[in-house]
Automatic annotation (TrEMBL):
Stated name of the protein: Putative Threonyl/alanyl tRNA synthetase SAD
Organism (species): Candidatus Neomicrothrix parvicella RN1
GO cellular component: a single term: cytoplasm
Pfam assignment, any one: tRNA_SAD
Subcellular location: Cytoplasm
Length: 256
C-alpha cells in the first residue's frame, strides 16, 4: 500500500538525467514507498520510456545496499524497484529505505553508456533516412549496443542498406556535437520537424518539451539519454531488414 510522505500531493521526482546524462551518482530523499519500491525526490536512474529501457544500479542507506531492478514513471513520480543485494545487507535488513531517509544511488554506467550510444545512433540514422527519403520512424526499441527501428517504407530503395550504413558512419565520424534544450510546449507544437513520428507520443500534460539536437543533422523532441558527440557512438551496422506488413520495414541494428 502506498504510504505518502505527507497529506498534500506528492512532489515530482527531479529527473537529473534530463539535464546531464553523464551524472552517475546522487543523494536523494525517499518521498514515498510501496512494497519493494521507493519514489525519490531526485534521481539519476532513467525510467523505461520512449523505447529506452530503465537503468540499473545500486541504492544505499544505513549500510544496507539494494539493487535497482526496475524504474517506472507513474504520474510525476519515478518508482525504483529494489532487491536487497545478496550478502550485502547491513545491520538493518529493511525491505526498503523509509520515507525521509537520505539515500545514495549509483547507476550501472556501462549499461547506461551503451544505451546512450545506441540511442544517439538511432537519432543519427533517423536523421539520415528523413533527410534522404522523408520517411518517419513508426516505432523502435533498444538494448545496450543493439536496437530495432521501424520505418514507413514500402519496398526499400535500391542499395538502401549500403547507402544508409555508409551515410550513418560518415555522420558518426564527423563528430557532430549534441546539445539539449527545453522549449515551451506551444513552440514545439508549431514545429512539425520536432515531432516526426507518426503519432505524437508526448502527453498533453507536458508543458516543456526537451529537444535533442545533433547539430546540423537532426533535431527532435526526446526524453532519452544521449552522448555528447556522434564520434562517441562508435560504428554502425544494419544486421537485418524485415518486412512488418505493407508500408512498414524493420531494421535490426548494432553498435560496436
Amino acid at each position: 500500500m502506498l504510504e505518502p510522505a505527507t497529506a498534500r500531493s506528492l512532489p515530482s521526482t527531479d529527473q537529473l538525467y534530463l539535464r546531464d546524462a553523464y551524472q552517475r551518482t546522487m543523494a536523494a530523499e525517499v518521498i514515498a514507498t510501496d512494497a519493494d519500491r521507493v519514489a525519490l525526490d531526485r534521481t539519476v536512474f532513467y525510467a523505461t520510456g520512449g523505447g529506452q529501457p530503465h537503468d540499473t544500479g545500486m541504492i544505499e542507506w544505513d549500510d544496507v545496499r539494494w539493487l535497482v531492478t526496475d524504474v517506472r514513471s507513474d504520474g510525476k513520480l519515478l518508482w525504483h524497484t529494489l532487491a536487497l543485494q545478496p550478502g550485502g545487507a547491513g545491520p538493518v535488513a529493511a525491505a526498503v529505505p523509509p520515507i525521509g531517509a537520505t539515500v545514495t544511488g549509483t547507476i550501472d554506467w556501462a549499461r547506461r553508456h551503451g544505451l546512450m550510444r545506441t540511442h544517439t545512433m538511432l537519432h543519427v540514422m533517423g536523421g539520415v533516412i528523413w533527410n534522404r527519403w522523408g520517411v518517419p520512424a513508426t516505432g523502435g526499441n533498444m538494448e545496450p549496443l543493439s536496437a530495432r527501428m521501424d520505418f514507413g517504407f514500402g519496398p526499400l530503395p535500391e542499395r538502401f542498406r549500403d547507402e544508409v550504413t555508409a551515410a550513418v558512419n560518415a555522420e558518426l565520424e564527423a563528430d557532430r556535437p549534441i546539445t539539449v534544450s527545453f522549449l515551451d510546449r506551444g513552440a514545439a507544437d508549431v514545429d512539425p520537424a520536432l515531432l516526426r513520428t507518426k503519432v505524437n507520443l508526448i502527453p498533453a500534460s507536458v508543458t516543456q518539451v526537451r529537444v535533442v539536437d545533433i547539430v546540423g543533422l537532426d533535431r527532435q523532441a526526446d526524453g532519452g539519454t544521449h552522448v555528447a558527440s556522434t564520434a562517441e557512438v562508435g560504428r554502425f551496422e544494419i544486421t537485418k531488414t524485415e518486412s512488418k506488413g505493407k508500408g512498414n520495414k524493420r531494421l535490426r541494428l548494432k553498435v560496436s
